[in-house]
Amino acid sequence: MSEAVLMEKIVSLCKRRGFVYPASEIYGGIGNTYDYGPLGVELLRRVKDAWWSAMVREREDVVGLDSAIIQNPKTWVTSGHVGGFSDPMVDCKKCKARFRADKLEDARCPEKPSKKPGQCEGELTEPRAFNLMFETNVGAVKDSSSIAYLRPETAQGIFLNFKNVLESSRLRPPFGIAQIGKSFRNEITPGNFVFRTREFEQAEMEFFVPPGTEHEWFDYWVKERHRWYLDLGIRPERLRIRAHDKDELAHYSNFTSDIEYEYPFGWGELEGVASRTDFDLKRHSEASGVDLVFFDPQTKEHFTPFVIEPAGGVNRIALTLLIDAYDEQKLEDDVRVVLHLHPRVAPITAGILPLVKKEGMPERAKEIGKALRKAGLTTFYDEKAAIGRRYRRMDEVGTPYCITVDGQTLEDNTVTVRLRDSMAQERVAVAGLVAHLEACTAAWTRDAATA
Ligand code: ATP
């Protein structure tokens, strides 16, 4: 299957089955913006849960935060975003379309899609800096004094709260503050579906360390984050770690590595791990006059911590999971579309299927579904069509388990559990069903799924 075809299939599956819809579709849409449907929103929640568990709940040295999207605009002057958060842009003098000067290779002329910008009849302007921040106005008056910005990253909210968290928790460096939340960037280049959108959720953690230890913590976090993706079942051969060249580094960073994935459209950043030095805390200290330093009561020294930042995008992670999980298997009489999602992130954990729509099977199936939901599992009840077709519908959205209620269930209180990846079926007592599914999820590996 060609790469463009694979992407098309994923986009169409996302729309058809309720993962992702183009935003404002009935009005013709709005560029690079999407809404998440019933299954998409469950997928995003599970990605965030997995991230929050690994980064906050399972650790003693990281705490969470939820900071405001609109902060005092001085925040963004100090961070360097007002002056420098821009992409070099060129315009086509003929059709007026705008492109990122550093991404012309990937762009297409909107009038002649077989050509790249500048290779059609249109001439391109010289590159100009285009700021990616969305402006808004705060308060009743709309003038230059009321300008504020929608945050382009969640990190700054963390730096602004460094002192608050330090004082209200008993943490001392090395420690981290993590945040998941929406960020906004007026991206110009077309986005490869939800890979690049104008609003997106970031999952960022700022890890504050004593100066001099930043190299070891940087190595630690690159490894941890890489392992997290492997644990979610992403194929190792499609992941790589790429260190930034000196000329690629952001103004605040002395070294950065990206965890990249091989997308159908080429290698791209999935997550960045940046050593942000003491840049942000020092700049905010200077600009606000509030000392953002740590006082070590043992050595009686003050120091500004250095910062290591793992920063990923929730939507990009979800897209990566979908792409990586997508599989078409040739069976004897048809082709099976299946998403080999890790059971922890699958939007529906169990399909609840009465074998036939009579003899008390629907009622018993619904009771079993209710018990599973009470135990915290998500279920989907389906009694329409032949059982084989219903299995396929669950395979296509990555549901790892199908519970079939049949005549025997009514006699001995057992059900058939059908596994998505191997299509194997086994008989399980209803009394032990939740424990059985949890054990299957704990034992799941990507290798076994596609063996
Ligand atoms: P890119 O080089 O792709 O523009 P970036 O280096 O600007 O990304 P960061 O500022 O490091 O990205 O943001 C951290 C993460 O947020 C990225 O690794 C990515 O997963 C996600 N992200 C960034 N921009 C977008 C976007 N426009 N749409 C969706 N996710 C994004």
Question: What does this molecule look like?
Answer:
Helix 2 (38-57) packs across helix 9. With 451 residues, the chain is of the alpha+beta class. 37% of the residues are buried. The chain starts with a helix and ends with a helix. Strands 3-9-10-16-13-12-11 form a seven-stranded mixed beta sheet. Strands 20-19-21-22-23 form a five-stranded mixed beta sheet, sandwiched between helices. The chain contains 14 helices and 23 strands. The longest helix has 20 residues, at 38-57. Bound molecules: adenosine-5'-triphosphate (ATP). Adenosine-5'-triphosphate binds next to strand 10, strand 13, strand 16 and helix 9.
Query: Domains counted in the coordinates: how many?
Result: 2
- From the coordinates shown, what is the CATH architecture of the largest domain? 2-Layer Sandwich
CATH superfamily of the largest domain: Bira Bifunctional Protein, Domain 2
Please give the CATH class of the largest domain. Answer: Alpha Beta
Q: Return the average pLDDT rounded to an integer.
A: 95
**Bound ligands:** adenosine-5'-triphosphate
Q: In whole angstroms, how far apart are the ends? A: 20 Å
Low-confidence stretches: none
Number of strands: 23
Précis, in short:
By secondary structure, the protein is of the alpha+beta class. It has helices spanning 3-16, 38-57, 74-79, 81-84, 155-160, 162-168, 214-231, 279-288, 314-325, 361-374, 387-396, 407-412, 433-443, 446-450; strands spanning 20-22, 34-36, 62-64, 86-91, 98-100, 128-131, 135-137, 147-149, 175-184, 199-209, 239-243, 255-263, 266-277, 294-296, 301-303, 306-313, 326-330, 335-339, 350-354, 379-381, 401-405, 414-419, 425-429.
